[in-house]
Design goal:
2 domains, elongated, mainly alpha, Serine Threonine Protein Phosphatase 5, Tetratricopeptide repeat, single chain, 80% helix
């Protein structure tokens, strides 16, 4: 009986270690940009653990990187079913809509993420961008302000708030673009030279 117990514990540990190794391998492929290999490794891991939230989410991200957006969307939906508080899944889901220029649904998903963590400058920025693109300028300005107040290094929020201020002929536009430029936002330098010099 004693040996049977040891054998069972050993088997569980071996199986658990094997699952962990498979997940780590998949994550390494993902981090090195080998997305097709990552998908294959996530699939192998998910055969053993079909409801593993992190593996499903990461596989969705890998699908996204390879342009398989429908499969990515299904994975993000599944993650939300498993854990309705997974902020990353809502953001990724929203980005899918944003990519398709469906800014209303993108905003809907980004707002869900933001409500789960009102200290997330990233969620506030994405929500502002979706509002901005759908022409809801007051809402966009509100969430750019929130994003910047939450994170003074959020170059993207500074840049797009500045662009929106320019569009609305509001003061402080070039200060925002300058801030984005100082933080190192790509394209801010050219934009500043074109509109603020």
């Amino acid at each position: 009986m004693k040996y049977l117990s040891i054998l069972i514990v050993f088997s569980i540990c071996l199986f658990s270690c094997e699952e962990q190794d498979e997940l780590e391998k998949a994550n390494q492929f993902y981090n090195s940009g080998e997305y097709k290999k990552a998908i294959q490794a996530y699939n192998e891991h998910l055969e053993m653990k079909p409801s593993h939230e992190i593996a499903i989410y990461n596989r969705g991200r890998a699908y996204e990187e390879t342009g398989q957006y429908e499969k990515a969307l299904k994975d993000f939906q599944k993650v939300i079913e498993i854990n309705p508080r997974n902020i990353g899944a809502y953001l990724s889901y929203g980005k899918q809509y944003y990519r398709e220029k469906d800014y209303e649904n993108a905003a809907f998903q980004f707002e869900k993420a933001y409500k789960l963590n009102t200290n997330s400058s990233k969620s506030a920025t994405l929500l502002a961008r979706a509002f901005h693109k759908s022409g809801k300028v007051e809402e966009a300005m509100e969430y750019y302000n929130i994003a910047i107040n939450t994170d003074r290094e959020n170059a993207e929020a500074f840049f797009y708030r500045g662009a929106l201020k320019l569009h609305l002929s509001q003061s402080g536009a070039c200060n925002d673009i300058q801030m984005a430029k100082n933080i190192g936002y790509e394209g801010a330098d050219d934009f500043y030279n074109q509109y603020c010099n």
